[in-house]
Design goal:
This protein has 367 residues and is of the alpha/beta class. The chain folds into two domains: 236 residues, Type I PLP-dependent aspartate aminotransferase-like (Major domain) (Aspartate Aminotransferase, domain 2, 3-Layer(aba) Sandwich), CATH 3.40.640.10; 123 residues, Aspartate Aminotransferase, domain 1 (Alpha-Beta Complex). Helices cover 36% and strands 14% of the residues. It has twelve helices and 15 strands. The strands form three sheets. An eight-stranded mixed β-sheet has the order 1-9-8-5-4-2-3-14, with helices on both faces. It has a four-stranded antiparallel β-sheet with strand order 10-12-15-13. Strand 2, helix 4 and strand 3 form a beta-alpha-beta unit. Helix 1 packs antiparallel against helix 8. The longest helix is centred in the last third of the chain and has 19 residues. 49% of the residues are buried. The structure holds pyridoxal-5'-phosphate. The site of pyridoxal-5'-phosphate (PLP) has 14 residues, from helix 3.
Length: 367
């Protein structure tokens, strides 16, 4: 926390704005809009998952539709597709960014159209903060006239060619869950290019109340609006967002400096200066063919032994039991990343002592 969060929360109590609306919600949305260069409109909601759900509704995704979704991600990218009764069509990653492969995306679109159904939306994800190849993905989306809903839950502060992640698609979702680069304890935001979409999102997020003196409804609504208390935390967090990005990137630099020399250990890396990652999490790949047999799990267990938490990368959605019947386009890129990848401790509060302890444990496994 920055320390300023409680000031904004106190304000909410003092003015009795203890509700899912109020000055903190408005100001937090304005802060986000300003941070993102004023190129999108913002609706603060209860979670990133809720933002993705609203995004799909706005794109007209209904039962029996298909939605293209990056396979290598957290389940929250795909679950809202199911909330709508639609089917996720999973797309593999490419090895440079670990995000959606433009080649497999196009292959998937062509094949789905051939099979009789054009997908309604594309959900690219910016894993661990790394921007995807958005020029290529956007060109394909434009060619086939399919809208993009960015899952930017992990990428607040990241940019591609100087353009902030979350401002490429027609719509985008941010998350402020407890583990994200900034947090409101739980929360999210829907970003939209058009003000009309945000007006509609607001209507749906507040129970779809028609303009009438009584309670009247012509559509199904949701209770998705962010609370004014939670938004107070968000306002305090926005004051330290640039610092948080700096801290996460510094962690990443430290690990690189001390671990890059290890044969067979590589990092998720910005492919060129076009990519700017907030490096929410620093992630590594251990290639047992080059490490002389040391595997990801060896590193994971050695860390656990030293009471240091690390985590395997996301298990691809096409390998998840709950999505096993969904179509998948790709080969083994995300599978191999899952087999060999590990997220290192990456919190903003890590001190050099902590980082050096992690490095020491990893180095001890290699000669
Ligand atoms: C955290 C996360 C979400 C969901 O956000 P919540 O606020 O936890 O609902 C969605 N997608 C990705 C990639 C995430 O990391």
């Amino acid at each position: 926390m920055s320390g300023r969060e409680q000031h904004f929360i106190q304000n909410a109590f003092d003015t009795n704005w203890v509700a899912p609306l109020g000055p903190n919600v408005d100001a937090f949305e304005k802060d986000l809009k300003t941070f993102l260069g004023n190129s999108v409109y913002v609706e603060a909601v209860v979670s990133g998952t809720a933002a993705l759900h609203l995004g799909l509704i706005l794109l007209g995704v209904e039962a029996d539709d298909e939605v293209l979704c990056q396979s290598f991600t957290f389940s929250a990218s795909a679950n809202p597709i199911r909330y709508q009764g639609a089917t996720p069509v999973f797309v593999d990653s490419e090895p440079d960014t670990w995000n959606m492969s433009p080649e497999y995306l196009e292959e998937a679109i062509r094949d789905r159209i051939k099979k009789g159904k054009k997908p309604k939306a594309i959900i690219p994800v910016y894993l661990y903060g790394m921007p995807a190849k958005m020029d290529e993905i956007r060109a394909i989306a434009n060619r086939y006239e399919i809208s993009i809903l960015e899952d930017a839950a992990e990428a607040l502060g990241s940019a591609y060619k100087g353009v902030p992640c979350g401002t490429f698609g027609e719509l985008a979702a941010l998350s402020f869950n407890g583990n994200k680069i900034i947090t409101t304890s739980g929360g999210g935001a829907l970003l939209a290019k058009s003000e009309e979409n945000i007006r509609k999102a607001h209507f749906l997020a507040t129970q779809a109340r028609d303009a009438a003196p009584h309670y009247q409804h012509s559509e199904i609504g949701y209770n998705y609006r962010m609370s004014n208390i939670v938004a107070g935390i968000g306002r305090g967090q926005m004051e330290v967002l640039p610092l948080r990005i700096e801290q996460r990137r510094k962690n990443n630099q430290y690990y690189r400096k001390h671990l890059s020399a290890i044969e067979g250990l590589t990092f998720q890396t910005e492919p060129s200066n076009d990519f700017f990652s907030n490096y929410w999490l620093t992630s590594i790949i251990i290639d047992p063919e080059k490490t002389g047999g040391v595997k990801r799990e060896d590193v994971h267990l050695a860390m656990e032994e030293a009471n240091i938490e690390s985590r395997p990368l996301w298990k691809p959605m096409h390998l998840q039991p709950v999505f096993s019947s969904c179509p998948y386009y790709g080969e083994k890129v995300s599978e191999s990343l899952f087999d060999n990848g590990l997220c290192l401790p990456s919190g903003s509060v890590l001190m050099e002592d902590d980082l050096s302890r992690v490095v020491k444990v990893i180095k001890s496994l290699f000669r």
